[in-house]
Amino acid sequence: MGETYAQIYRRSIEEPEGFWAEAATGIDWTRRWSRVLDDSRKPFYRWFPDAELNTCHNALDRHADGGRGDQPALIYDSPLTSTVRTYTFRQLRDEIARFAGALTRLGVAKGDRVIIYMPMVPEAVIAMLATARIGAIHSVVFGGFAAKELATRINDATPKVIVSASCGIEPGRIIAYKPLLDAAIEMADHKPDHCIIYQRTQCLAALTRPRDIDWYEAQIDATPQPCVPVAATDPLYILYTSGTTGQPKGVVRDNGGHAVALKWTMSNVYGVKPGEVYWAASDVGWVVGHSYIVYAPLLHGCTTVLYEGKPVGTPDAGAFWRVIAQHKVSVLFTAPTAFRAIKRDDPDGKLIGKYDLSCFRTLFLAGERSDPATLEWAERHLKVPVIDHWWQTETGWAIAANCIGIEQLPVKHGSPTKAVPGWDVRVLNNEDKEVKPGDIGNIVCKLPMPPGVLPTLWRAEERFFKSYLERYPGFYLTADAGYRDEDDYLYIMARIDDIINTAGHRLSTGAMEEVLASHPDVAECAVIGVADDLKGQVPIGFLVLKAGCENPQHMIVSEVVTLVRERIGPVASFKSAVVVKRLPKTRSGKILRGTMQKIADKQEWNMPATIDDPAILDEIAEALRTIGYAR
Length: 631
Ligand code: COA
Ligand code: AMP
Known about the structure:
Layout: H1 5-14, H2 16-23, E1 37-41, E2 44-47, E3 52-53, H3 55-64, E4 72-78, E5 83-88, H4 89-105, E6 113-117, H5 122-133, E7 137-140, H6 147-157, E8 161-165, E9 167-170, E10 173-176, H7 177-187, E11 194-198, E12 212-214, E13 230-231, E14 235-241, E15 249-254, H8 256-268, E16 277-280, H9 287-299, E17 303-307, H10 319-327, E18 329-334, H11 336-345, E19 362-365, H12 372-382, E20 386-388, E21 400-401, E22 418-419, E23 425-428, E24 441-446, H13 461-469, E25 475-484, E26 490-495, E27 499-502, E28 505-508, H14 509-517, E29 522-532, E30 536-545, H15 553-567, E31 576-579, H16 593-600, H17 615-626
Parallel strand pairs: 4-17, 6-7, 6-8, 8-11, 11-12, 16-17, 16-18, 18-19, 19-20, 30-31
Antiparallel strand pairs: 1-2, 3-13, 4-5, 9-10, 14-15, 21-22, 23-24, 24-25, 25-26, 27-28, 29-30
Helix pairs in contact: 1-2, 3-4, 3-9, 4-5, 6-7, 8-9, 11-12
This protein binds coenzyme A (COA) and adenosine monophosphate.
Residues 241, 287, 366-370, 388-393, 416, 480, 492, 495, 501, 506 line the site of adenosine monophosphate.
């Protein structure tokens, strides 16, 4: 019999170096490590410090030349364009090597940055892996972000080349990417040398020569490039994620620890074998897409599915079951919001019965809290284990999960189960003491964390330290609050910062407040996340207007809604705001956002002892009622 979860977990915490050195044998190295963990600069740690490898080799060449050359590596399934296209490991490797040649010819070399601003097309994956192949660093920007967000990332990552497409496709509309890209480059102080544009027939882009080059033209006579060995500690990618200000955090991922950890999770967390089909229904612009559409399945020799569609409406709520049956998917990973959408359109799960799902083994959910009702619905209708697991952009893989590949533990609805091996998770109070089971506190992870977790923020080590390591010395602050029960199951309840989760997308209300505050009629503002049946949470804004403002309130509200869409993007789902006379504050001037949220969500709330003027809360409730919130 294999080891139990408890045994493996104990070994990972007591002998982390031995544990991860063993996991590292799953990866091809061009130079082996002499030390597993470098702890000479505490609290900054590095895994496999003197080892070398290439991540693209491990994801592609290793399989293409090692007996999986003819196995599908990637299946592109796009109901939005009625396309299904399959790439074998050999075909995908060859395309990547050629595109790497195009990048090299444009001067991209080891350590240079390449921004990838693309929809869910195979060319996005090819661009990511080609960048990794030549030891450069990619930074993928989600297509639903506005030009200004892209400009911020261009300035921070200072890319030599940007790879983009002429358009993205959302149900019912085409999103022309090129005007957004041009506007972003115009706004940014840093200018890329070149842009490579993948033209889609749905909308062709006008190219600005000589800066812009067509995707295919860039590859004419390009010399296919071999894999360049890099240090395990060299960055593989930068992925920007919402922080507590308008300036996103550039999460850095290394090459070595990342490959080791992700490969290990495929068999241990997800219970998947090489050769099987694995599908993460997310977007390459998010961390789930990086880890589980692109890297982990390929590192493990699995076939990955790249799905350009939605859970509903493309064409109906049976879309996921169609994909599972057609491509023989073993494991699906998505966000609970996708299941809430399916449940809303097909409450009795009638469409499930239309498809042969005998290949389907497990459903994994993450990105936001799995509400028990949705989880139970999925269990009842799919009749497979439904596993909630908890992680973050920063960690790159799960901190807590039911590790089905090791041992399936009993499911407790509302909990992502227990800490995954490698993670020493604690719940601390404000006095730095561990709380007792059942009591809520700040969830932290003891340092050093396992491989694959962010070693730093891009060119912002001080911000990295202050954001995550300063509050509890020796621990990483997850910024999630929650508790642990008597059986060591974790419950993730809320963020302790201004982050909200909308349809599984991570957004900063602080960043939205910055946009609202820039409106000329707005004196003061606040944004909070309120409960939403489909998206989990959606943002709403409160505006206090400048004295003497005579513009109609409905016009100002509509203008700020447009501003957020223009500056942050449609993904913010910012659709409602109300004008109020004042904002409720403590005597020291802190806005009482938590109380406002409880009022909006019709929850019980207590009058804060420190409130400056209790009457303001009645005004807030009244304003909220006008847009359908509060009792
Ligand atoms: N490019 C451009 N615009 C995009 C986009 C992209 N890649 N992705 C989303 N948008 C737009 C949407 O069209 C929508 O625009 P609208 O306000 O004009 O309608 C807006 O951004 C908000 O998108 P979203 O919050 O995703 O809502 P939706 O109504 O389009 O879809 C779900 C709702 C639940 C179906 C969808 O969010 C979903 O499938 N989520 C689950 C999977 C997932 O992606 N999880 C992420 C991490 S695991
Ligand atoms: P992101 O960085 O976009 O992956 O968002 C990470 C945040 O999403 C976490 O810090 C949590 O607040 C939330 N989150 C992700 N997965 C879960 C989960 N399974 N349960 C509860 N919250 C989750």
